[in-house]
Amino acid sequence: MDNKVAIVTGAGRGIGLGIANKLAKELDMNIVIVDVDEVSMADAVNQIKSIGKEAIAVKCDVSKAADVQSMVAKAFEFGEVDLVVNNAGITRDSMLLKMSEADYDLVLNINLKGIFFICQAVCGRWVSAAKKLAEAAAPAPAGPDAKEVKMEPSFYPKKRIVNISSIVAKGGNIGQANYTASKAGVIAMTKTIAKEMARYNINANCIQPGFIKTPMTDKMPEKVIAKFVAEIPLQRMGLPEDIAGAVKFLSSKDSDYVTGITIEVAGGLNM
User: Fold this and answer.
1) What pLDDT does 14 receive?
2) What is the pTM of this model?
3) Which residue has the higher pLDDT, 145 or 199?
4) Residue in 95, 226, 235, 98 with CA at minimum distance from that of residue 173
5) pLDDT tens digit sequence for 157-185
6) CA–CA separation, 240 vs 21, rounded Å?
7) What SS3 class is residue 35?
8) Bridge partners, residue 263, by sequence
């Protein structure tokens, strides 16, 4: 299998599925569909295969290190992983004075620690491969004082990470102390990963979606949706395809010199 592989978490439906389809259709990538819902994963795999690309489904609780390690191993067995999109996330909304410790921890563990686990596991494999490539090109002297061979970043194959945050990380949101904290943490962690991994030609960037139409928002009352839309300068909800378009840019050669940034895809919300 010659095509590059993308890992997309939370890809069973909604934004994640939109991203997976975009990467398969327009960047000619094969996809590792990662989720906890086996039914939606199976449907997502069928969608990818229907457009002529390959896909596998891997059930994974991203908040569990062992699950992540197993998922990443399967992804690298599937093909040459060039991209990981960390989209999986949950909400457990409650006002600050009523929020339980369990709900706070659950959201932080999935939305933030999960990205840490995946980036650590994937980057570990990428860096190991990069070091072997450098040593093959310019073998380091043997002995206890031998130092790692250093090459210019452009020497290594380009790899990419795209992490999905949220526009509420910018301005906060009532009832979401846990969620906003996790999504703000995603931005800060992405910048740190970008700085640490740049020497290996690994780009790490972030996207902040706004109010996006998903199966979850479809359950909201029309009056509530109208209230949210009224605050958006472009006067409409975003679509998964809007987020997928930004992911496509950050996953393509057009963004080779872009790392450590955050793109707002929110129709002007919270400008």
Assistant:
1) 95
2) 0.95
3) 199
4) 95
5) 999 999 999 999 999 999 999 999 999 99
6) 10
7) strand
8) 207
Contacting residues for 55 by C-beta, under 8 A, at least 6 apart: 20, 24, 30, 31, 32, 33, 44, 45, 48, 49
Q: Following CA atoms 60, 63, 66, 70 in sequence, which dihedral angle do they give, to the nearest 10 degrees?
A: 30
Residue for token digits 């895809």? 265
CATH number of 5-138+147-265: 3.40.50.720
Q: How far apart are CA 212 and CA 184, in angstroms?
A: 18
For 198-247, list the strands marked E by DSSP. 202-209
- 200 in active site: no
pLDDT recorded at residue 2 = 59
In whole angstroms, what is the distance from residue 166 CA to residue 249 CA? Answer: 18
CB atoms within 10 A of CB 5: 22
Of the candidates 156, 179, 200, 257, the residue annotated as catalytic is 179
pLDDT (0 to 100) of residue 1: 46
Structure tokens, 217: 């928002």
Residues whose CB is less than 8 angstroms from the CB of residue 12 and which lie 6 or more positions away in sequence, other chains included: 33, 35, 37, 39, 40, 41, 43, 44
CA–CA separation, 147 and 200 (whole Å): 16
